[in-house]
Inverse folding.
């Protein structure tokens, strides 16, 4: 059994079929994170309809629509029983054709802090999106005491030095299809060195399809190619990867649930 810890089902044109196809190859559970608060109801509706889907609510760092998001707004949506985490949230300083201004960086930081506050209040783990902003992301996690709830650096793309700090802060590494790309040596080194007990697998579908589907629309069923590559890099069986990462997911996202019940 495999779990896709980060899949934007709501962005897949035929998500019911995608879910069914995924289940057939052993991907038995999917976590669907939020990208903008305005879309949260769409994500929650899917999670409510399918017992093998859980949800997170949050606003992606580049979503300018949610610039002045409040703790109460996120908390209201996170009250839904399908919600197991807060995110995706974080910092994304990757310049898409234009400069990221100091003002925009500050706004992203502020929004990230609001999400962490919610996570701490609700005792739910964070789903962190961090791109070209490793040190700033780690700094905010430390300043806000986010290690109390922990979470996952989804689609981890930094090097081993950053990975070590992420692990020291008690966070998990979200391993995506990027590790199947031939030139992804830095990330492959992270997978070799990091403990399997601290990894989650994810497709980030419809984005980032793994080889041999690179460049095409991604699907949760392609998670098997990511599990296969982790197994190869670690020199262990695919079954061992599936079993351990499934256990990790349960440990991270259900520990607070267990306390509550
Ligand atoms: Zn992301
Ligand atoms: Zn995402």
């Amino acid at each position: 059994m495999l779990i896709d810890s980060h899949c934007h089902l709501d962005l897949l044109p035929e998500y019911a079929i995608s879910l069914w196809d995924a289940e057939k190859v052993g991907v038995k559970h999917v976590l669907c994170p939020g990208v903008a608060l305005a879309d949260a109801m769409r994500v929650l509706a899917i999670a409510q309809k399918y017992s093998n889907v859980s949800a997170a609510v949050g606003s992606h760092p580049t979503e300018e629509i949610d610039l002045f998001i409040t703790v109460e707004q996120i908390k209201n949506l996170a009250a839904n029983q399908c919600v197991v985490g807060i995110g995706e949230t974080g910092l994304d300083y990757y310049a898409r054709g234009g400069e990221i201004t100091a003002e925009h960086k500050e706004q992203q930081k502020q929004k990230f802090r609001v999400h962490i506050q919610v996570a701490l209040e609700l005792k739910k783990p964070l789903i962190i999106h961090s791109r070209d902003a490793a040190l700033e992301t780690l700094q905010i996690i430390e300043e806000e005491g986010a290690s109390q709830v922990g979470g996952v650096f989804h689609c981890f793309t930094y090097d081993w030095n950053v990975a070590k700090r992420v692990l020291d802060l008690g966070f998990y590494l979200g391993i995506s299809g990027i590790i199947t790309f031939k030139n992804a040596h830095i990330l492959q080194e992270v997978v070799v060195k990091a403990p399997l007990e601290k990894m989650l697998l994810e497709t980030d579908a419809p984005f980032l399809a793994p080889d041999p589907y690179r460049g095409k629309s991604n699907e949760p069923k392609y998670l098997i190619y990511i599990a296969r590559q982790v197994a190869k890099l670690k020199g262990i069986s695919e079954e061992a990867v599936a079993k351990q990462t499934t256990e990790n997911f349960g440990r991270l996202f259900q520990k607070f649930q267990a306390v509550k019940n």
The CA atoms of residues 62 and 97 lie 13 Å apart.
